[in-house]
Write a structure and sequence with these properties.
With 412 residues, the chain is α+β, with helices and mostly antiparallel strands. The chain contains 11 helices and 5 strands; from the N terminus they run αααααααααβαββαββ.
Amino acid sequence: MRTPDRLPSMDDTRRRSPTSSAGGDMNARRPRSTADGAQARWFDIGAMAIAALMVGLWIRDPAPLPAYSGPIYDVISCVAGAASIAALWWRRRFPLVLACALLVCSTLLPVVSGPSLVALFTVAGHSSLRPTIWATLLALCSTPVQVVVGSPLRDTDFWRGVLALSLAILLVVGWGIALRSRRQVLESLQERARALARERDLVADGARRAEREEIARDVHDSLAHRLSLISMSAGALNYRREEIPAELAEQIATLQGNSRAALGELRSAIGDIRTGIGSREFSIDPANFDLLDLVEDAQDSGQEIDETITISAGLSPTTTRIVYRTVQELLTNARKHSPDQRVHVRATGDRDTGVRIMMANALSGTTTEVGPPGFGLVGVAERVKMHGGRLTAGPTAAGQFEVNVWLPWKDR
């Protein structure tokens, strides 16, 4: 339970709700985990057992009885004792109300004195300072009445009886306050530990971000330089178009265009590495990520492809980009490992089922050197996983290698 006199923690001002005031939280319960709830219930059972023991001892040896005792009084005492024990099950939910009710009953029915002390302990251990003070004052004020009217101490010296009951009440209240203070200190330490863990995670994220930026800078400086050299060399050859065959000139122009496109995509990918996928606006318009154009470019290069592409409109730019990059990498992977086999591509998507990509091709022993081995599908899987999707890949019984990708649909 959150109380106003709780030791402050770093995030109290942000996490405190409008209803957690001094007057509104005396009967409130703080959120507990399943394990904490089970432990609390065992404590409740233990408290009820202690109260039942005290009630049983009083019924067995009631000491001097009040002047109004009799058969009816005995029945009422038994019923009141059982009811007070059962009421302790709700001692955490209504601590102050239950304690006040039992303290009032204990003035006329001494059998309820034991459960009333348990309820008073609950108020001291789980409520704030104000309800604890009110409950303690009520208990102290009821002691003279118990001594005179219904207590077993009525035949002893009045002040000795009042002093004995008052000491018992103060001991119970002090024990409850001590346990509450200990629990609050532990909660404060746990909150500080969580704050330190969050701070440590932020420092680790900053270190990872700095490392990504350093890697991105190195990759950009090396590859961008090489790609710009290729583009410049192709451009220099393109100026001498009249001196070379037309077919070769066309290939040189294609080389120059592809190198420029690769340089632009490299810079875009570097942005992904630096800031994380999906955390920035794209430098390239997602509308340019046309899967049909991508397939046509692959077909123009000689790759045989059967495509089925039906993706509904309204897909978010982030998901559009990832779908495009996934199909692009899978086509490259198929071109690398099975260049002589026809590739079957199917990409479908809507708001109800998400985006599904399937690519399959027959296994082949022929490979081509398209890029460094071993990281194509790993990179695709990582990108898909970061977006909340999943990827499965492997050979099928029909002798094909099949890749299946699912991505959650996110609206534009």
